[in-house]
Description:
- InterPro entries: DUF2849.
- The chain is an alpha+beta fold.
- It has helices at residues 42-53, 80-87, 95-103; strands at 8-14, 20-23, 29-30, 59-69, 75-77.
- The chain has one domain (8-103).
- The chain has 3 helices and 5 strands; from the N terminus they run E-E-E-H-E-E-H-H.
- The longest helix is centred in the middle third of the chain and has 12 residues, at 42-53.
Amino acid sequence: MARKFVPQIITANDLFEGDVIYLKADGTWSREIAKAHIANSPEQVETMLDIANGQPGSIVGAYAMQIEINEDGTPAPNHFREEFRTRGPSNYFHGKQADIKQTGA
Length: 105
C-alpha cells in the first residue's frame, strides 16, 4: 500500500550568511517559514528542488522537509530538528541574535 503524501517545503542555507531559508512560490527565498511555498505532490517537490538546485551560487544544502499546515494555512515544522532551524542558533551570543541584543532592537 502506498504511503500518503505529506506536504513539504524546500529549505536550504544562504551560502553567504548561513541563514536558514525557505523557497517561495516565485523561486526566491525567505527567512520566514510562513512564506514558503507548500508542495502538495511528489512532482511539485521535484520541480521545487530543481529550482533550488539551479541556484548554486546563492544557496547550499537544499532539501525537502515534511510539514504540518497551521489553521491559517502556513507551514509549520513537524520535526524537532526543523523547529530548531526556524529559531536560529541555540547559542544566542552568535549570529543575528547577538546583533539584536547589542543594538537593543
